[in-house]
Amino acid sequence: MAGEQRIIEYINQHIAPDYGLKLEAVGVQDPVQADRAVAEGQYAGTIYQHQWWLKQVVDANGFALSTTVPVFQWAFGIYSDRYSSVQALPNGATIVVPDDGANQGQALWLLQRIGLISLDPAVEPRTAKLKNIVGNPHQFVFKELDLLTMPRALNSVDAAIGYVSQFDAGKVPREKGILFPPAPRTFASQLVIGTPYLSQENIVKLKQAFSDPRIQTWLKTTDDPLVKDVLVPVSAE
């Protein structure tokens, strides 16, 4: 993705030389193949996935991959083509949530944090599924869609919950976003490394470079339109 590429370019120019490194962003269309390439040592690492997405990939494919350093958060929130605030959503509103487990939990947890639904307390919120909703006082109707399809469906539903980057890619204006609460740190993008290579000298330096506090400062202050309000500093909690 373009925003992640900009982060790598910033680190390469301003931070990597201090650690004796030179970085290059490489685009791989298939994320599973990208993870396979990192696990096999073809590439040093990735920064496009949070730990729970990675867990799905590892569980499905058996790759030897490790999360190391949180790098940024994807801005994640609620969009609507019909309403200008969450409070305006009517009873019975149709709300679209991601259809993959790793991101559906984030969407439902968001709704619980703002008091619109209740989740089964026996279930860890980040893992919640639609079946784990135990309180729905506004009688919202939930539909599942993949993240790429969600922007195209926005005009046919009352609200949709997903990543700013996906809605930007779908040409949905930012003003259609009606709530962007801080994302939990557990969903931060991670520098993912092939587990067998964690102790290699260049990888140790890479982890140090991606831990440099200048990255978080830049994320907070940059005016780069591909990064500003799309990829944000790592949350405290």
From TrEMBL:
<keyword id="KW-0449">Lipoprotein</keyword>
<dbReference type="InterPro" id="IPR004872">
    <property type="entry name" value="Lipoprotein_NlpA"/>
</dbReference>
<comment type="similarity">
    <text>Belongs to the NlpA lipoprotein family.</text>
</comment>
<keyword id="KW-0472">Membrane</keyword>
<dbReference type="Pfam" id="PF03180">
    <property type="entry name" value="Lipoprotein_9"/>
</dbReference>
<keyword id="KW-0732">Signal</keyword>
<dbReference type="GO" id="GO:0016020">
    <property type="term" value="C:membrane"/>
</dbReference>
<protein>
    <submittedName>
        <fullName>Methionine ABC transporter substrate-binding protein</fullName>
    </submittedName>
</protein>
<keyword id="KW-0564">Palmitate</keyword>
